[in-house]
Amino acid sequence: xxSEQGHHTSLDDxxxxxxxxxxxxxxxxxxxxxxxxxxxxxxxxxxxxxxxxKHVVEPRLEWSYSGEFEEQDNVPxxxxxxxxxVLGRNVGRAALINRLLAKPAGAGAAREIFSLExxxxxxxxxxxxxxxxxxxxxxxxxxxxxxxRAYPTRRFGLRLDADYSxxxxxxxxxxxxxxxxxxxxxxDFTWTPRWQAASGEVVNNQxxxxxxxxxxxxxxxxxxxxxNYDIEREELRDQRHLLTWAGSCWALRLELHESNTVLRRRxxxxxxxxLKNVGTFLDLTGGETTGGL
Length: 293
Description:
Radius of gyration: 24 Å
Distance between the termini: 50 Å
Shape: globular
Strand content: over 45%
Number of domains: 2
């Protein structure tokens, strides 16, 4: 029985049913700011606060197995959950999850406002250790993983993922992401550094910042931007900016996009006019590439 990320099992359904009965909870994780809630509901919860809290401790044991089969190398790998290589997969997981549920003082169902999960995988296949290096050091147990989620209000969310190698006593990866919304304005950020387990050398260190601004109460004008910056190389890797002006039955869009790689830089421009019940009426694109082949 496995409940890897992206899959929902009968165990998950049973746990959610019990939690819902205990506190009349809508246990959808996080209720990310700006999703599924109007501004009036956000304001009401912020002003009223929470009436009561409940702490749930959830130990969990999982096991996933996939056997070997012919021509396994020809099977496409869609995500990190798919087994890679010819040996299949035989891995168990032990996890301890702490959840803090809160019920608003006003109307509305209780929801999860904080959770901390600590887990570790273990390979039951001697030929497929989860950690190792070229010197022959290996471990059937994988790195210690921690996942922290905090959603104290509907307008703010924070998530922190960290992997720590007990074999090499080294932090190997970190992912920090969060968002904040106020009315129609929204700000998102992500930071994803990674290190070599054996040497501690930096493998990757990038950060992204996104913003969406709608300065007028009518909401006709909106500006969205997303920037990705390589901290290790001190280089702006990708940036995208979108300007939209919406009328009652039409919309004007101007989009600018620039991406940088080691070999080349690419700029793209897009201007479009969209009509209600018609779609894109006019679409003008352009761009240029410098460097590379």
